[in-house]
UniProtKB/TrEMBL annotation:
It comes from Methyloglobulus morosus KoM1. This is Dihydrolipoyl dehydrogenase. The gene is lpdA. One of its GO terms (molecular function) is dihydrolipoyl dehydrogenase (NADH) activity. The active site is a redox-active disulfide bond. Disulfide bonds join C45-C50. It catalyses: N(6)-[(R)-dihydrolipoyl]-L-lysyl-[protein] + NAD(+) = N(6)-[(R)-lipoyl]-L-lysyl-[protein] + NADH + H(+). Belongs to the class-I pyridine nucleotide-disulfide oxidoreductase family. Keywords: Disulfide bond, FAD, Flavoprotein, NAD, Nucleotide-binding, Oxidoreductase, Redox-active center.
């Protein structure tokens, strides 16, 4: 049977970047084929990333809130965890969205081809389906959206089910008694939050001198202080030198990391001296040390598309690769590896491919750690301002002075605003606290609109809300709030 297809635009990869590009191109009147190797659309984000992790994090939040409110007069019993039901609830959330995407593809007459796609030239992709059949797709233009996969450390005993990556961890096969998280970045700490709430004893090991490297330390501190009490260990500047599979667990050996910070100063107190042991046995280890782009696996050379040795594909502001009719978007084009970057780039690529004028010109891509408390930041960080010698005014409004924060039983948050010295123009913001991920959106809009501290400070925010804290931080900069009580 001849399955061969001919199309105006082919999109390789059905993650948030790919399906967004496919839908946009179809909406602009283009004939579109979308190729996805798994039998569902949605990519890492929907199937093994953003969405299932947030579903499980919500469970963690419910458990913690119920526990902590015991101090304030409402006591619940110890939670009973039915893992099968938790898993099927998570799967239900994902399936609803998978089905929604399949419907959106159908409505737009996007042809979805399931199978592993590889370029065979700058105008053809060959797709190998699970049943052994192949389809050749001939195209005028292509959008590469093949995403990324978890970084593996070659010497670790992969294949042992007790050694997990984020995909395994989200499956929630069991709740290990003693869990080590290798990597104190966003993904590692989100999974730590989930497993801690479900009853695991958590240890975190991080190479750098702080958790969530790259984020300003003042924003990290409230999270660090809270999890320090909840978790068994947080080992900074420490690396895992080996993991050996043993009958009763995974034996992990630790080393001091060579990379002591240039300053030699540990600005987060309390962990210096609390060094990791030489080795310790864990029931399970989750490795969350970053992600690698999938650019080296798609026959890009046969299309003439340049891929660097790590697997990233370089693109211009219109998402075009070095080959004129081939675009690339999402995790495979570089950091930050975030779904909202991928979707935004997907729209740009589809519009350019459809002959419209478009370019990626976002001023900032916000980052959010959905830990408890959440941390969100956008625009310039203080670390960057200092590195780049930018003069700035800063205000940090403490949530201990927010009525709303106190009335939800939490007060450790901070809302920080960074403005250009002299003009007051918003350059950056960072928020740590409940719902920080929702709250950062206002700051992103302020930056995109070129707002200054007065614009934000004189905007009436509803009372009592956490959103007021951004207004208050701006008022601290313009001088209309001087006293915090
Ligand atoms: P992907 O989502 O990786 O999609 C690529 C698709 O291409 C996949 O479906 C893959 O199967 C397919 N594919 C690859 N190669 C081929 C081929 N040769 N042929 C056919 N198909 C192929 N980001 C956020 O913004 N917010 C979050 O809260 C968040 N949480 C995360 C939590 C976890 C645990 C993880 C792992 C990631 C998280 N991310 C989050 C990151 C986010 O998932 C990615 O940035 C996003 O999925 C990237 O989208 P993409 O379209 O570039 O690629």
């Amino acid at each position: 049977k001849n399955n061969d297809l001919k199309t105006e635009i082919v999109v390789l990869g059905g993650g948030p970047g790919g399906y967004t590009a496919a839908f946009r191109a179809a909406d602009l009147g283009k004939q579109v084929v979308l190729i996805e190797r798994y039998p569902v659309i949605g990519g890492v984000c929907l199937n093994v990333g953003c969405i299932p992790s947030k579903a499980l994090l919500h469970i963690a939040q419910v458990i913690h809130e119920a526990e902590e409110f015991g101090n304030n007069g409402i006591t619940f019993g110890k939670p009973k965890i039915d893992l099968d039901k938790v898993r099927s609830w998570k799967a239900g959330v994902t399936k609803t969205l998978n089905d929604g995407l399949a419907g959106l593809a159908k409505q737009r007459k996007v042809t979805v081809v399931y199978g592993l796609g590889k370029f065979t030239s700058a105008n053809t992709i060959s797709v190998a389906a699970n049943d052994g059949s192949t389809t050749s797709v001939q195209f005028d233009q292509a959008i590469i959206a093949v995403g990324s996969h978890p970084t593996k450390i070659p010497t670790f005993p992969y294949g042992d089910p007790r050694l997990m990556d984020s995909t395994d961890a989200l499956e929630l096969k069991q709740i290990p008694k003693k869990l080590l998280i290798v990597g104190g970045g966003i993904i590692g700490l989100e999974m730590a939050t989930v497993y801690h709430a479900l009853g695991s004893e958590i240890s975190v090991v991080e190479l750098m001198d702080q958790i969530i490297p790259g984020c300003d330390k003042d924003l990290i501190r409230p999270l660090h202080n809270r999890i320090k009490k909840q978790y068994k260990n947080i080992w900074l500047e420490t690396k895992v030198s080996s993991i050996q599979a043993q009958a009763k667990g995974l034996k992990v050996s630790f080393d001091r990391a060579d990379s002591i910070p240039a300053s030699g100063i540990h600005t987060i107190p309390g962990d210096k001296g609390k060094d990791a042991p030489e080795s310790e046995v864990f029931d399970s280890v989750l490795v969350a040390v970053g992600r690698q782009p999938n650019g080296l696996t798609i026959g890009a050379d046969l299309a003439g598309v340049n891929v660097d040795e790590r697997g990233f594909i370089t693109v211009d502001k219109q998402q075009r690769t070095n080959i004129k009719n081939i675009f690339a978007i999402g995790d495979v084009v570089g950091n930050p590896m975030l779904a909202h970057k991928a979707t935004h780039e997907g729209k740009v690529a589809a519009e350019v491919a459809a002959g419209h004028k478009a370019a990626f010109d976002a001023l900032t891509i916000p980052s959010v750690a959905y830990t408890d408390p959440e941390i969100a930041w956008m625009g310039l960080t203080e670390i960057q301002a200092k590195q780049q010698g930018i003069e700035y005014d800063k205000a940090a409004f403490p949530w201990a002075a927010s009525g709303r924060s106190l009335s939800i039983g939490r007060k450790e948050g901070i809302t920080k605003l960074i403005c250009e010295k002299g003009t007051g123009r918003v350059l950056g913001a960072g928020i740590v606290g409940t719902n920080a991920g929702e709250l950062i959106a206002e700051a992103v809009l302020a930056l995109e609109m070129g707002a200054d501290a007065e614009d934000v400070g004189l905007t009436i925010h509803p009372h009592p809300t956490l959103s007021e804290t951004l207004g208050f931080a701006a008022e601290m900069i313009i001088g209309t709030i001087t006293d915090i009580y």
